């Protein structure tokens, strides 16, 4: 099970997430998010994550930013992957891939009821709730995993307490969390990060 811990802004939280076993770490650059990072914070987080494990996937997460602008930002800051939230077209994904080949498309059943993995040429599809980064859960029973293959990522309101159940329900290739591993908006809780990764990997509900 591939695990991404998102919304990191400090070197301590980045190192911790990677040492605890995260496959990917995310930095959010979206001014309305409580996790919005500056370019300098992004550089520090990337260096810390890579010092813990050189081959960790580093992901720039943006919301409704022009795709070419986001791709240039991801390339210039040295991210491995660009995660696009918003209503993009296949042409936007292709344009972004000219600058950074690894692009993940994040969408929801609300924005894209006919969800199909790879439909826009993205490396990975991330299926989220309707409000990215809100921590809100959504109705997984509305999803038809048969359309999604095996490599898609599930997000939206996941936490150490519910991730095992969510995985059992829809069998994603990976999971992504932001709010659910925080003690307050934008404040990562290292113990919750450890518990989330363990629960996702073991498929067991963790004890509190
Ligand atoms: O985390 C954010 O603040 C954020 C802001 C804007 C776009 C995406 C964001 N995060 C991504 O949202 C989902 C789920 O987040 P949560 O666990 O429900 O808080 C996840 O893909 C994050 O990468």
What do these coordinates show?
- The chain has 208 residues and is α/β, with parallel strands linked by helices.
- It is built from 6 helices and 10 strands; from the N terminus they run βαβαβαβαβββαβββα.
- It has helices at 11-19, 39-52, 67-77, 90-99, 163-170, 190-202; strands spanning 2-5, 24-28, 57-63, 81-85, 103-108, 124-128, 153-154, 174-177, 182-184, 187-188.
- The strands form 2 sheets. It has an 8-stranded parallel β-barrel with strand order 1-2-3-4-5-6-7-8, surrounded by 5 helices.
- Strand 7 (153-154), helix 5 (163-170) and strand 8 (174-177) form a beta-alpha-beta unit.
- Helix 1 packs parallel to helix 2 and helix 3 packs parallel to helix 4 (90-99).
- The model has no long low-confidence stretch (mean pLDDT 94).
- The structure holds the ligand O=C(O)c1ccccc1N[C@@H]1O[C@H](COP(=O)(O)O)[C@@H](O)[C@H]1O.
- The site of ligand LGQLAAA5 has 26 residues, from strand 2, strand 3, strand 6 and strand 8.
- It catalyses: N-(5-phospho-beta-D-ribosyl)anthranilate = 1-(2-carboxyphenylamino)-1-deoxy-D-ribulose 5-phosphate.
- Keywords: Amino-acid biosynthesis, Aromatic amino acid biosynthesis, Isomerase, Tryptophan biosynthesis.
- InterPro entries: Aldolase_TIM, PRAI_dom, RibuloseP-bd_barrel, TrpF_fam.
Features:
10 strands; two-stranded antiparallel ribbon; alpha/beta; single chain; 21% strand; binds ligand LGQLAAA5; eight-stranded parallel β-barrel; 208 residues; 6 helices
Compact description:
This protein has 208 residues and is of the alpha/beta class. 31% of the residues lie in helices and 21% in strands.
């Amino acid at each position: 099970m591939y695990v991404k811990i998102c919304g990191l802004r400090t070197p301590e939280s980045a190192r911790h997430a990677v040492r605890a076993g995260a496959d990917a770490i995310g930095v959010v650059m979206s001014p309305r998010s409580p996790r919005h990072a500056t370019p300098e914070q992004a550089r520090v987080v990337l260096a810390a994550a890579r010092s813990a494990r050189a081959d960790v996937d580093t992901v720039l997460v943006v919301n409704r930013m022009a795709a070419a602008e986001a791709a240039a930002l991801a390339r210039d800051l040295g991210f491995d992957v660009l995660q696009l939230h918003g209503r993009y077209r296949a042409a936007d994904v292709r344009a972004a891939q000219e600058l950074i080949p690894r692009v993940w498309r994040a969408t929801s059943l609300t924005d894209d009821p006919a969800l199909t993995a790879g439909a826009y040429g993205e490396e990975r599809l991330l299926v989220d709730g309707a409000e990215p980064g809100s921590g809100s859960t959504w109705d997984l029973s509305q999803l038809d995993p048969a359309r999604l293959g095996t490599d898609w990522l599930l997000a939206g309101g996941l936490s150490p307490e519910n991730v095992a159940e969510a995985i059992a329900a829809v069998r994603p290739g990976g999971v992504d969390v932001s709010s659910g591993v925080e003690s307050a908006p934008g404040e990562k809780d290292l113990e919750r990060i450890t518990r989330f990764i363990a629960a996702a990997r073991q498929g067991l509900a963790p004890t509190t």
